[in-house]
Each structure stands twice: as C-alpha cells, then as structure tokens.
Amino acid sequence: MFNKKSELEKKSLTTSKKLAKFLLKKYNVATLPGSEFGMPKRHMSLRISPVDYDGTIVLNEYLKNKSEINQNPTNFVTEFAPNLVKATDRLIEFTYSLISD
Description:
Blueprint: H1 4-10, H2 16-27, E1 32-33, E2 46-47, H3 55-71, H4 73-80, H5 82-100
Helix pairs in contact: 3-4, 4-5
C-alpha cells in the first residue's frame, strides 16, 4: 500500500522546510514552508503563489473574449500564466515520483 509520508521520508523530506528546498533545487519550483506560517515543522504543508501575471491585462482580455475563453480555458491560462502552468506540471511530476520510485 502506498504511504505518502514514508515515501517522503525515503527522500529525507521530513519537514516542510526540507520539502520546499527540495522542490526548489530539483524541480525549480519556489514554495514557502508551512512552518514559516505557524504550522508544525513536520506538518508537510507548503504555500505557493499562483500569480505570475498582470491581473489588469488578464481581466481585460477575459472580459473582451469570455465566451471564447470559457470554451477553452486551458489555452487562456497557458498564454497568460505560463510560469504557473510550468510549476504545476513540475509539482505533478514530483507527486508521480512518489508513487513510481
């Protein structure tokens, strides 16, 4: 049976700070450990910021083309927040590595 905690421990990822450093070094994804926000150190929580775009530009584009964008929101996000898409893909890659290693 898959135990995510033991899979993290196999990689010596026992604190949220270690997990944040690991993700930055190996996957080039910046996060903040939950311990920086009052969570217990061994509570494996992270904070991420999904904002890598100019909100005014994105909102105006959405308001101009919302029916088209609603048909295919993936293209919209990919165009206006490409770093968010890359970071999400890398987090998915990390998550899969926990079950495939």
